[in-house]
Structures are given as C-alpha cells and as structure tokens.
Amino acid sequence: MRAISCVVPDSRDAILITGAAGYIGSHATLRFLREGRRVVALDDLSVGRPGAIEAIRGAAPGADLEFVRRGITEVDASWIRGRGIGAVLHFAARAIVPESVARPELYYTVNTAGSVALMRACLEGGARRFVLSSTAATYGVPPADQIPIRESTRQDPINPYGRSKLAAEWALRDLTAASAGSGFASAALRYFNVAGCDRTGVLGEDHDPETHLIPILLHHVLGRVDRVTMYGEDYDTPDGSCIRDYIHVDDLVEAHAAVLAGLGDGEFRAYNLGRGRGSSVREVIAAVERVTGHACRVEVGPRRAGDPPVLVTDPGLIDRELGWSPSVPTIEEIVGSAWAWFRNHPEGYRR
Ligand code: UDP
Which end of the chain is more exposed for a tag (fewer CB within 10 A), N or C? Predict the structure, then answer.
C-alpha cells in the first residue's frame, strides 16, 4: 500500500468528522489531525464517548481540532460554510442490527433522514466531498456463488439497519448526480467487520452495550463477562460457525484518506472495505486465546437472527483504482492491537 496524503479539494479546508467520539470516528479524527489537517469533530454523545475526545486531545496537543456536541440534523449550510468545511466523513449512525429490528423508525430517522439532511447542508454549504459509512449489511445474504462479495453483488439487505444504510447510499448517489457541475463528489464505503484498536494505544473500542465478538471476548478475558455465547454451530461452513471478514480500524480509516485523495469532481464511487479473508467465530475465539493466554468459557447458543453465514469481501477494486490495500494481515494482529488497549483500559474510557 502506498503512503497516502489526503488531498481534499483544498488542503486548507476543514474535514468534518461526524460520530467523532465513536469507535471509528475517533480513530479517523486522530489520523487526520496527525496529518496536520483541520478537523471539526461532531458528536451528540448519544453513543459516543467524551473520553475518546479527551484521549485525542491528549495525543495531539496543539492540533487544529474543534469538537462540537451536536446532532447531524442540527448543522446547516451556514454552519458548514462558516467553518470552511471542504470534506465530510460521515460516521455518525445507529449500527446494532437487533435494535434496528425493534426500533426501525430510529434507524430510518438517523441513518437515512439524518444523513440526507447532512448531505443537503454540505451541498448547500460548499463542501465538495462526502464519504458515507455504509455496511456489508446492505448485501443481505448473498448466494454462495457471490462470495467473496464484490461491489457489483446485488444489494438486498435483510434488516432495517442494512436498508436504512442502503437508502442513504441511494440518496447520496442521486444527490451527487443532481449536483453535476458543482464539483461535489461522494463515496459509499461498505465496511465489513471493523475490529482492533489504534496501534499507538491511544484509542479503543468502548460500546455500551457491547455486542461485537472481539470486544466481548476481551471483556470476558478481563473478567467483566462470565462466559461468551457462540451464536450457532450448525452453519454450512467448515467448522459450523459464522465467517466474517475482519479489517483493522486503522486500515479502514486509511482507506478514507485514499478515497478523499482519489475522488474526482462529480463522481460517486462505492467500495467494499475488508481484508478479503474470512475468520470463523471459532477461529476468532482461538486467536483471542492465543493472544491473551486465557482459555475462554464459550457456550453454544442458538443462531442470532439476521446473521448471514459468510460475509467476506474481495477488496480488489479499491486497490486497483486507488492503491489501497489492508496492511494488518492477520486476525492475531487485529486482536493483539485490541488486547493492548483493553488491557490498559479495562473499564473503557471511564477509567
Ligand atoms: N457472535 C457470537 N457471540 C457474540 C457476538 C457475536 O457468536 O457474543 C458472532 C456473530 O453471530 C457473528 C460474528 O460473531 O457471526 C460477528 O458478530 P459481530 O456482532 O461482532 O459483528 P456482525 O458480523 O454482526 O457485524
């Protein structure tokens, strides 16, 4: 992977990062500040952590960071223009599948309507680049002959979370087409399983409630969770457990820099972001045991509703077009970076 220096239309422009106090948004904020960029960090702290912003300030003293506690629908064109925002990385979202099934209105309000309101404010406020965090969940359950998943694989989400994100993708593509000639360009980045923690040890993953496999296993190792449930062992996979494509959060953030650097005026692009390698739940458990030296108490439970058996991408398109490929090659290294942070922050950012 070649080193990427971000070229937003004008390097003096600020980058607006929404969800900046969240897991991925915080990593992106630190990355762009370290590059010397001016960052406006937006978060309503409904799920984000103030501790993440404090950690960023501690790690990047003197960096050009403005943190604004506000929702994505509470910014308008004059707010965007007044801050000289040239590019937007839109991470703020609700992203828990079972919650989306129980509260679809919340997902369509935040992920779809909220995103559209932000797109509109950005277009009217003169921002020229918009990168939407989308998800592998927009693909639903692709047929076996479509694995690994490519960007051309049919998007057919099976839950409100995936549909709320796919609707936002459509809106972004259509708004970009309608603004032809203005210089606006955009991308939808479909994340597979983002995992691991900042390799400089500053930032981590701190959700409440925690639903993701690797953090739950590490909470278990730390004694915060008594046992871990494996959701299903009767899938049609080599070891019976679900297979996912885990990508290190630092690699994922780096892909955003590549996209900002590579987008041409007027374009809309979509890319899958993963490592292109699958790890089963059993393999992830084994990796956690190897990395931590702790035997995990795992019980097998029923399948979790809405879990596709295999989600693995072919990340070749963004490599061919923009020269981005993941640099963290193994699940052990991903888990190792997470373990380094969790060990030092057993209570998350609350410590
Ligand atoms: N999983 C599990 N036990 C848990 C949490 C997750 O067996 O306590 C499984 C889940 O069924 C899926 C994989 O681990 O197959 C990854 O789940 P996660 O929630 O981390 O990410 P998702 O794939 O849902 O985005």
Answer: C
